[in-house]
Amino acid sequence: TITLAVTWGLTKARDTKNVVEIGQLAGVVEAFKSKYEFYPSSKIMIGRNQSALDAESQRAWSKMYPTMSQTDWNQTNAALVPTTPITLTGDQAMVFFLGGFQEGGSATNPPVFKGFSTNPKNPTDFSAPCTKPFGFNGAQLRFMGSNFFGYNDAYDIPYAFFSKGLQTTSQWRATDCSTLPGSPTPYFQQSGTVFNYFKGFQIISAGEDKVFGPGGAYNLTNPAVSGPGFDDRVNFREPKVGVK
Hints:
Elements: H1 2-36, E1 43-46, H2 55-64, H3 70-75, E2 86-89, H4 90-99, E3 101-103, E4 112-115, E5 141-143, E6 149-151, E7 160-163, E8 187-191, E9 194-196, E10 201-205, E11 216-217, E12 233-234
Parallel strand pairs: 8-11
Antiparallel strand pairs: 1-2, 3-4, 5-6, 7-10, 8-9, 10-12
C-alpha cells in the first residue's frame, strides 16, 4: 500500500509538472509571436548560406532579421552556425526558437543558451543586447549534436511541438515529430477544406504511458480518444486529451 501511494504521488507530481511547464513554454511561444509576428516554426533550417535553406526557413529568418547581412552571419560567432545546413524539427525547433543559439554542451552537460541578438542584421552578434532564453531544466535537455538540443517532459519523453509557423497552406505539416513514440501528428477539427488547429501551435506531452496518441481529427467537447493518447497533455485544453 505504501509503495502504491508513493508511485501514485510521483505520477501526480510529474503530471502537475507537465501541466505547469507546458503553460510556461506556451507563454514564451506567445511572447516570441508578439516580438517577431509569427509563431516559432516546428521545422527550421540553420546554415551559414541562406540561399541553401528551404523557402519556409528563409521566410522565418527574414521575418526575424529583415536586413540580415550574410557577411556578418558568416563572421560573427560562426562556430555556432553549421557550415552545412541542418534541419531542426519538433522539440528541437522549439528549444532553438525559445533558447536561441546554443554554445557548448554535450550528452552530459547542458549548453549555454545565448538567445538571439537584437542587431537587426545579425542573429549571432552577442555584443548587442539579446533576447532572454527560456529557463530550460538542464536535466531534461537531450543532446542532438552540433550544438543543438531537444527537450523532454517530466516522464523523460520529448515534447511534441507543432506549429503553423510560416507554412502557406491551411493544413499543417504532420511529420515534424514522426520519430517520437506513436508518431504523433497535430490535432484538428475540419470543416470542408478548412482545418482548425485550436491554437497557432501545439505542445504535447505523451503522459504517463510515454506513448503519444496519433493526433488528427479531434472534438474538443466530446473527445473520442482511448489507449495511447488518452493521458496526453496539451496546451490547447486543460483536461487530458481523452477526458471530457
